[in-house]
Amino acid sequence: MKSHLAALIVALATVTVPIPAHAQMTPEAAAALQRAIAIEREEPVTSVPLIPHMGKYAFRASLDGIERQFVFDTGSPTMISRELAEELGLEVIGTNTGRDANGREITTQIAVIDRLTIGGVTFRSVPVLITDFGIADPDRCFFDGGVIGSEIFPGSVWHIDAGRQMLQIAGSLEELPDLETKADAIVARLHDSGYPHAPVFDYAIEGFEDRGLFDTGNSDTIVLFDRIADDARVKSAMIAGTVREGRGSHGVSAAGLGANTDLLRFEIEGIRLSGAELGRHSGTTRSAPPSLIGLGILDTYDVTLDYPGTRIILHPRDRPRSVSSEPGYALMASDAEVRVVQLFDASAAQLAGLELGDRVVAIDGRELSADDTGCETIQWLTESRLAQSARQLTVLRDGRRVEIDVASRRPQ
């Protein structure tokens, strides 16, 4: 593997980019962020394939005629790589400083794309943030063109069909008639407070009320801001016997790897959107607000973001995807090594002797050598979901190899 910081494994947000906090902008940049984006449609509904990509979804799109693959991140503004911005010859019109998923400040440049085209729909004069993805993805294992986010959402209906792995974009919900007939859908108000127009909704847990974000940039299902998770009403909704404390990093975000901190995993029920319960789902916490419904919800629901109707709609899937159990640990490739970056108390892995920070040199007999290609190793780790399926990890401690049976069950 090449020496670089790669991707967190096991349902962690590989990269979550910032919603602006404050900025140094020219009047031109400020106007670009506030200006309504014009939309040109070749057909009433356009459909594009969603490409599973290292624990996220991506799709093909073109910027001013140059096509790339982009991660689809509903919780982010559109961000493109510095290399793509140079290829496009974009003019920088200002800078923005925001915070990433780990609460760290990150500064990006602002430019405007004339044409952003997804399938048969083109968005005109789209503001984009230009960033250096080298901190989180130096060899471009995760990013090609960058991230397409939420500033292009107003004026359209965005339907994410996870079962068919398809994204549909329409001008109104009436143009997607099959969705209107689903009586078992959960419908909640969609709030739009301005750029970057992220999908924000109201939710309640056992009398506690708050606003959350639908964020496909986070692979988990329910992610609570840790201060909210401490509320007695919220704690009462966590299923007895499922709460697991741990230690480690929340993941790699735009400004780099988050510091080790206390972690919490649980199953929770009683979350309501407009009075309708979501059912029982796995949850975790994060150190920065807001709370999220993440990409994992697509295992159970298809999601429609109806911006013209100011609604977020969750449609129960006909065939929910089976969800594998949490392994109690997470791995990350970094500096030509794979290390344990999360470990939960009383998990099979911890009881078998795995330790936070352990260097993993083999998984189920497959050696992880320094000669491996970085992107191939990262893809193998993420897309094979090895942490869920691995039975044995070989770690290196004090110069000797130690075999750990991470699939063993807790002694009775």
UniProtKB/TrEMBL annotation:
Domain PDZ: 332-406
Keyword presence, Metal-binding: no
Keyword Signal listed: yes
Keywords linked to the UniProt accession: Signal
Signal peptide as annotated in the record: 1-23
SUPFAM superfamilies named in the record: Acid proteases (SSF50630), PDZ domain-like (SSF50156)
Database matches in Gene3D superfamilies: 2.30.42.10, Acid Proteases
Parts of the chain that traverse the membrane: none
Name the UniProt record assigns to this protein: PDZ domain-containing protein
Species assigned in the record: Pelagerythrobacter rhizovicinus
Lineage: Bacteria, Pseudomonadati, Pseudomonadota, Alphaproteobacteria, Sphingomonadales
